[in-house]
């Protein structure tokens, strides 16, 4: 073997090693789904310099970063654009994220926390106990507006008598349904009063479509979402805590909700959506799913993701458990919170106040993303009456008419963790047909152990 | 500084970049996570809680389930992969095969592909209407519920992991094969040994240290499996593909019980240590 080929071999070996180490590094770095990070410049030094000007009570200036998801992000982006026009010299940059997983890590480590953050209603109290000191006291801006907010959300915003969050949207539930599909199979949506009626309608659609159109889609396993099972649970006024600090999933409300959904599965009117959010959009787009019971914000999701189905979607109230029963529930909703580490709290607070507690801000929320916000005075705004071409009605008006009997929102501190553990009960029941009480009790025990560890 | 000290320091200077990085990104996290495993991380502070985290994780039914899943996947995956790697390495080492260079590169390519990308491709293959199920249907079988049946979901992960790592192990074994002195084969041929005899009496025994290395690294790899179940099944259906690492990740980065996650990681370390020790013992006794 001559020296030349030996040398070539060495180079080849080196090359392979470089490639391998590169790919291994890529593996370890790419394990998590990292949210999109475009357009998120860190607060620049000039912005930090401007902070003093912003805080001195003069004109607003400087820059902030905001995180939000889904159609809320679309709305706040439009809001930020308008706000920056109104206040030249301000810079609000948005980071659209699929969920808050990365944000939780940032809060846990105290690094790179955005100035303004969107949280689910159900997570708000948990954030306050899990990341104490991370959020700014907002009593001076939310306190005076207390009487103008939807009463159900007020307890979620407070801790120790102070306000820590500005309420964004609330989510009265509607049963979204495909008008054209219901008509094609001769089902009258407006005649659906109870869940029994709903199941019958689903059976008709399933039979007449030869099994190609299902009525109810959810993740049987609960791993990606448990929202669909929880809509009837919230409708019944269910609570995952028996009393403060005592977890109990095996409540009459949960058992009824579980058994209702199981009846749908047994009636063959359901489709499994293992990756619920994206699989649902796919199922809707290819016409294999014809109803979705969700918060009113879902109207914005439909408009954005299945724009070509305009005019085909209608709204009816949630079916009741029995004739004359409650037709209302809340599913979703969110808040904005300001980081206590923000270098430009004045701008963050001013923007959030304008965006969520003014008619102009709420009109943008409604027009861009159909977000039904918690600020009651805006319900009189023309934007809340305007007919939405996609649905042929005003979704805001519809929501306002279907929110009077929503049960209280049962989201105390550590709900986030108790909710997360709850998902484990879905698979054994819906996929493995285990006993409902046994499944719920087993999961309760695990959740209680976790709760005690977290609190203790 | 005199010449002698300089001479002694020089190698360390060359190693300094590595040593600093290693200390910051390996040693420090390892020590810090050990401290964390005895505490509760809350609001950027660690409150020591003694053995509480270990007590919790040992009583955690899900952790035990994850351990069982991980071992089941490992017991299916590693033997299949070792067998395939050995077969492949013998084939691409054979002088009868043309274009050996092409094949050698070919089997190695999967390692170079990013784990996330290939896992997403596999999830498309195995989806309800993916190429696997449509092929099954075309052949007259009914489609399989890769994402709804626990065993099938485990098999899907086994396929994916094997696809990625078989070639890598085959290349390592190939290096071992090429180190076997050809004289041994010549002598055996002269003595009239058949090809099979040569394989079992010469190749396998000579390859033993390499096989041991490959087995240990593969077992360690499967015990720490994360990407494939996280992206393919998210641990489903009903947590039947929940691996230990995935469970610890959920505890750590979904629920932010860093303490418990660290305690679990150290338990896993002990388990891997025991498994490796047993393997080394078994092979030593045979010698």
Characterize the largest beta sheet of chain B: strand count, sense, and whether it forms a barrel.
2 strands, antiparallel
Content of β-strand of chain B? under 5%
Low-confidence blocks of residues of chain A: 15-57
- Widest sheet: strand ordering of chain A: 2-1-3-14-6
| Lateral strand order in the biggest sheet of chain B | 1-2
Q: Give the % helix of chain A.
A: 40-55%
Distance between the termini of chain A: 70 Å
Structural Rg of chain A = 25 Å
How many β-strand stretches of chain A? 14
Q: Can you put this structure into words, describing what you see?
A:
The complex is a heterodimer of chains A (456) and B (287). With 456 residues, chain A is an alpha/beta fold. Chain A has 19 helices and 14 strands. Chain A starts with a helix and ends with a helix. Chain B has 287 residues and is mainly α. In chain B, helix 2 (52-58) packs across helix 12, helix 3 packs across helix 7 and helix 7 (150-178) packs across helix 9 (195-223). The model of chain B has no long low-confidence stretch (mean pLDDT 89). At the A-B interface, helix 1, helix 4 and helix 19 of A face strand 1, helix 2 and helix 4 of B.
Topology:
The complex is a heterodimer of chains A (456) and B (287).
Chain A: H1 3-29, H2 45-55, E1 62-68, H3 70-86, E2 90-96, H4 101-109, E3 116-120, H5 124-130, H6 139-142, H7 154-157, E4 158-159, E5 162-163, E6 166-167, E7 173-178, H8 179-184, H9 195-208, E8 216-218, H10 227-235, E9 241-243, E10 246-247, H11 252-266, E11 270-272, H12 276-285, E12 291-295, H13 298-305, E13 313-316, E14 334-338, H14 345-356, H15 359-369, H16 395-401, H17 415-422, H18 426-430, H19 436-455
Helix pairs in contact in A: 3-15, 10-11, 17-19
Chain B: H1 3-36, E1 39-42, E2 45-48, H2 52-58, H3 61-93, H4 100-112, H5 115-126, H6 131-138, H7 150-178, H8 182-190, H9 195-223, H10 227-232, H11 244-254, H12 258-286
Antiparallel strand pairs in B: 1-2
């Amino acid at each position: 073997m001559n020296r030349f080929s030996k040398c070539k071999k060495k180079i080849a070996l080196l090359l392979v090693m470089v490639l391998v180490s590169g790919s291994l590094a890529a593996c370890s770095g790419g394990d998590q789904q990292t949210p999109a990070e475009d357009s998120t410049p860190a607060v620049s030094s000039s912005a930090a310099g401007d902070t003093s000007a912003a805080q001195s009570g003069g004109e607003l200036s400087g820059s902030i970063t905001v995180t939000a998801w889904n159609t809320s992000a679309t709305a706040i982006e439009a809001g930020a654009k308008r706000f920056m026009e109104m206040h030249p010299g301000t810079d609000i940059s948005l980071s659209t994220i699929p969920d808050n997983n990365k944000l939780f890590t940032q809060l846990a480590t105290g690094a790179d926390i955005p100035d303004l953050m969107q949280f689910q209603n159900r997570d708000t109290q948990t954030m306050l106990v899990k990341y104490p000191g991370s959020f700014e006291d907002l009593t001076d801006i939310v306190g005076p507006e207390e009487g103008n907010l939807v009463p159900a959300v007020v307890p979620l915003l407070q801790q120790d008598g102070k306000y820590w969050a500005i309420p964004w949207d609330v989510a009265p539930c509607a049963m979204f349904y495909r008008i054209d599909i219901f008509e094609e199979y001769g089902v009258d949506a407006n005649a659906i009063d109870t869940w029994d009626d709903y199941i019958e309608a689903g059976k008709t659609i399933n039979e007449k479509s030869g099994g190609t159109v299902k009525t109810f889609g959810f993740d049987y396993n609960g791993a990606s979402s448990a929202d669909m099972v929880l809509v009837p649970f919230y409708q019944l006024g269910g609570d995952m805590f028996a009393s403060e600090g005592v977890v109990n999933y095996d409540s009459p409300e949960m058992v009824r909700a579980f058994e209702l959904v199981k009846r749908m599965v047994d009636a063959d009117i359901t489709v499994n959506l293992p990756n619920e959010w994206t699989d649902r959009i796919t199922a809707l787009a290819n016409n294999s799913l014809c109803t979705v019971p969700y918060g009113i914000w879902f109207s914005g999701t439909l408009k954005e993701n299945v724009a070509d189905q305009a005019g085909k979607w209608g709204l009816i109230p949630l079916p009741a458990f029995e004739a004359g029963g409650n037709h209302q529930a809340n599913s979703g909703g969110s808040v904005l919170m300001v980081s206590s580490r923000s270098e430009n709290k004045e701008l963050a607070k001013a923007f959030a106040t304008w965006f969520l507690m003014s008619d102009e801000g709420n009109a943008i929320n409604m027009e861009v993303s159909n977000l039904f916000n918690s600020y009651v005075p805006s319900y009189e705004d023309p934007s809340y009456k305007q007919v939405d071409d996609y649905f042929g009605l005003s979704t805001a008006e519809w929501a306002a008419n279907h929110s009077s009997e929503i049960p209280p929102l049962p989201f105390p501190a550590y709900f986030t963790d108790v909710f997360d553990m709850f998902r484990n009960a879905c698979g054994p029941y819906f996929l493995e047909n285990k006993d409902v009480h046994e499944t719920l009790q087993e999961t309760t025990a695990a959740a209680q152990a976790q709760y005690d560890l977290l609190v203790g | 500084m005199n010449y002698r000290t300089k001479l002694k320091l020089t190698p360390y200077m060359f190693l300094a970049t590595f040593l600093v990085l290693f200390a910051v990104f390996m040693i420090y996290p390892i020590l810090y996570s050990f401290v964390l495993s005895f505490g509760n991380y809350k609001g950027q502070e660690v409150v020591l809680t003694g053995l509480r985290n270990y007590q919790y994780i040992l009583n955690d039914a899900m952790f035990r389930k994850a351990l069982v899943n991980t071992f089941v996947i490992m017991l299916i995956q590693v033997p299949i992969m070792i067998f395939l790697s050995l077969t492949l390495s013998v084939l691409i080492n054979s002088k009868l095969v043309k274009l050996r260079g092409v094949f050698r590169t070919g089997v190695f390519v999967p390692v170079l592909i990013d784990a996330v990308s290939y896992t997403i491709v596999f999830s498309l293959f195995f989806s309800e209407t993916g190429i696997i199920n449509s092929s099954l249907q075309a052949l007259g079988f009914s489609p399989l519920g890769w994402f709804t049946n626990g065993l099938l979901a485990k098999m899907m992960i086994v396929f994916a992991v094997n696809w990625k790592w078989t070639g890598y192990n085959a290349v390592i074994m190939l290096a071992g094969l090429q180190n076997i002195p050809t004289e041994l084969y010549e002598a055996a041929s002269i003595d009239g040994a058949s090809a099979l005899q040569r394989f079992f009496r010469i190749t396998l025994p000579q390859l033993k240290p390499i096989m041991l290395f490959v087995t240990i690294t593969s077992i360690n790899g499967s015990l720490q499996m994360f990407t494939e179940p996280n992206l393919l099944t998210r641990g489903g259906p009903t947590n039947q593909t929940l691996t230990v690492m995935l469970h610890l990740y959920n505890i750590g980065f979904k629920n932010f019980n860093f303490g418990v996650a660290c305690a679990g990681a150290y338990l896993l370390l002990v388990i891997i240590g025991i498994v490796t020790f047993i393997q080394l013992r078994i092979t030593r006794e045979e010698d």
